[in-house]
């Protein structure tokens, strides 16, 4: 398993709720989290199948900004 990290604009519980279906479908429930206390709102994804580009595409499709951490 590899750990991918990204800066996002996912900054509240409502944002997390909005992106949950997409990330659960792509990465699997329990394989991702967003540190909303961090100023960069770091999304951490643990995966053995997703590429960074696939994670970026999933988050952007959910309507959020994302960049490599």
Quick structural gist:
The chain is α+β, with helices and mostly antiparallel strands and 69 residues long. Helices cover 35% and strands 29% of the residues. It is built from two helices and four strands; from the N terminus they run βαββαβ.
Major sheet: 4 strands, antiparallel
- Structural category: alpha+beta
Are there runs of 5+ residues with pLDDT below 50, and where?
Answer: none
Taking the alpha carbons of the first and last residues, their distance comes to 18 Å
- Average of per-residue pLDDT values: 97
Helix content: 25-40%
Beta-strand percentage? 25-35%
The rounded Rg comes to 10 Å
Strand ordering within the main sheet: 2-3-1-4
Query: What is the overall silhouette?
Result: globular
């Amino acid at each position: 398993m590899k750990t991918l990290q990204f800066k996002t604009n996912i900054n509240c519980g409502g944002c997390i709720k909005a992106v949950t279906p997409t990330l659960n479908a792509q990465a699997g429930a329990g394989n991702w989290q967003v540190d909303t206390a961090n100023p960069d709102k770091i999304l951490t994804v643990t995966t053995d199948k997703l590429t960074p580009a696939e994670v970026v595409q999933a988050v952007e499709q959910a309507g959020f900004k994302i960049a490599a951490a």
